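In this section we walk through a basic example: taking a raw amino acid sequence and producing a predicted 3D structure, encoded as discrete structure tokens. The instruction is simple. Fold the sequence below.
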Amino acid sequence: MNPFVYNSPVRGKDFFNREKTVEKILKETVTGKSQGNIWITGERQIGKTSLLRHIQSLNENYSEKVKPYGCDKSFNVAFIFANVQGCTEEESFYATLWQSLKDYFDFKLTKAATCYEDFINAVNLIYNTKNYYVIFLIDEFDAFVETISFKKPQSATKFLSKLSSLLQEVDEVNGGSKAFSCVFTANRDIKELLNENHIDNRGSGLIVEAVSLKWFTRKQVSELADLYLCDNKIKFSAKEIDLCFGATQGYPYFTQKMLSLMYEAKKNVLSEKEYITLVKDEFGEMFKETIEDWGGDKMPMRTLKKLKDMVEKMNLADAVTKVIARMLEIYIKSKIGI
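The resulting token sequence is shown next.
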């Protein structure tokens, strides 16, 4: 069975190379002196969802208590995941967070007039009655903000301003201190998100600690392969790891995909020349199809530029490289209106 996973969140023992990031997130949200918020930026399929799911599963039985800034009382901690990509308005955002709380705590509350009120009532119950401080792990946050800003950027400005106030102090919650924190994932950093969607910077700033997920180094690619092949007869040589890193530059999704292609080819191809040719051709075609599927003009500028740099460094057939580079150039021009 092919051990390399690239199309679903990585969990358990397969989770790789984010230990320091996890420590930073926990320090910022629960183990430090104040309960802050985190904004995680990274390219598509770099592992943002896997990171949130890992934090959630890692801390299902989190035993340490937290004392919110400005509060003398200590609270238990709950890490709760919510994907908001499908939300289309502010109310559906709060409805999604409410449902995530409902799924975790299984409470019973009379429905209010709005989803926002339902959310506040649930936070109030959990904070003051169940004695829990919640860390929301909010996936695909920028996709939601883009949706609500598409027709009315001022709606996004208003929403972000209200959320910023909530993340500092929830006046509607008895006790008056900070009641929850958020860890957001996004393909863009905050400045890019606001600028690309024409959202007013003056009223929409979230107070967060920024974290950018990095690509793998050549050493980490080798360590990843060793981890996944520890009980496998098939092993990769230093030359093969160089082949993988040369093609992917350490982009986690493409690294996993390349290692997967190499694994399958190594099982079925005898000669080294056939093996390398097959892997390069299949990876080049896969890369091209993936970028086309992602939709270049919908991707953040930072991602487009990184992918273009990646293509220029690839050790692939010239014909494939030129096709991809030309395609990405068209995407970039369409994004900046040339």
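Looking at the output, two observations stand out. Residues 18-212 form a domain with the Rossmann fold fold (CATH 3.40.50.300). The chain has 13 helices and five strands. In the next section we compare this with other chains.
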